[in-house]
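Here comes a specimen:
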Amino acid sequence: MTPVSEIVDGLESSLARMQAVAKELEADPVKRAERDARIAEGRARDHRFKVEHLRSDWNAPKRHVQHTVNDASPIWTGYLDSLAKRIGSGFLVALIGSRGNGKTQLAVEIMRQATEALRPALFTTATDFFLQVKDTFNRDTSRTERDVVKRFAMPDLLVIDEAGKRGGSEWENNLLFELINRRYNNILDTILTDNADMAGFAANVGPSICSRINETGGILVCDWPSFRPA
C-alpha cells in the first residue's frame, strides 16, 4: 500500500505542474487565445447538442421547421420580436386570423428561439391532444388521462395549433381549461392558434381562458393577406 505521504506529495506535484502550465498560458497570448478558442468551441458544441436533443421530440411540423421566413409581413415580424422577448415570462397568447397567413409558422419560430435558449417546447394540435387523451380509454394502455395532461403541462413552451378544431363538448372544454390553467398557474408560456375572428375565438375557448389570455399575453390578430397561392 502506498504511504499517505507519497500520495500527498504526488498530488502536490501534479498541482504544481498544472499551476505552471496555467501560468505559462497566461503569459503567452497566443496559447491563451488557443485555449479560449477550444473552450468556446466545446461550449458551442455542448449547446448545439442540447438544442438538438430538445428539438428531437418537440413535434413541430416538418414543413414549418424547414421553412425559411424571408417575406413576412412587418406585423408578423413585430409579433415575433415581441414574443421572443417574453419567452419565459409565462405568457398565454392567441394568434387568430384567416388561414395561410403564418400563424403556425410564427409559433414554430418562437419554439425555435425557446429551444435555442435551452427551454423545452412542444407542439400539438387541439385534435391530437384530445385523441391522445382518448387513447388512454383503451384497455391495452397503461397511460391515464392524467399522464397525457401532465406531458403537455410540463414544457416551458406549449403550442396548441388549431384550437378551434375540436368537438366543443363540455368534457373537451373542461380538459382544455385544466391544461391551460395548470400552465397559467405554473407561469409557463402557451400559444394558441385559431382560424377565427375575435368573437369566434372567444366562443371557441370560453371566458375563463380568454380572461387568462387578456391578463398574461393578449389576442394577436393576424389580418394580413395569406401567403398561400390563391
In short: The first strand starts at residue 92 and ends at 97. The first helix runs from residue 4 to 27.
